[in-house]
Write a structure and sequence with these properties.
This protein is α+β, with helices and mostly antiparallel strands. It is built from 1 helix and 8 strands; from the N terminus they run αββββββββ. The mean pLDDT is 86.
Length: 120
């Protein structure tokens, strides 16, 4: 009988990540700087506080190699969308596109990166 009493709580906890929304990448741009590239990414996510927020993004090559990671240290509940930058990203010279992959505290890394062409 006790098992039946806690079953709804367990099922709710298991289903919670299913209802989480992924962070959306609205824009990204890159500019060459003295020590590599400066990548700026604009994200949008329904941050609710420390329990569910966009907690970072990363820059990848087509083969999945991570060439830059930008952690986000706190929720942006009242600041949506928002833009953050990462300097010193080493993009190989022959790279046509990079992929930006957003991350949330509940879902982890988005399963698919968003492609952005490298400036000429």
């Amino acid at each position: 009988m006790r098992l039946l009493a806690i079953l709804p709580v367990v099922l709710t906890l298991l289903a919670a990540p299913t209802f989480a929304d992924p962070a959306r990448i609205l824009a990204a741009e890159a500019a060459e700087s003295g020590s590599g590239w400066r990548v700026s990414v604009t994200l949008e996510h329904g941050d609710t506080g420390w329990d569910d927020y966009a907690d970072g993004w990363r820059v990848e090559l087509a083969d999945g190699t991570v060439i830059g990671t930008r952690p986000l240290a706190h929720p942006h509940v009242n600041e949506q969308p928002f833009t953050r930058s990462l300097a010193g990203v080493a993009v190989p010279a022959d790279t046509g596109s990079v992929f930006i992959r957003a991350r949330t505290s509940t879902m982890g890394n988005h399963p698919v990166g968003t492609a952005y062409p490298c400036p000429a």
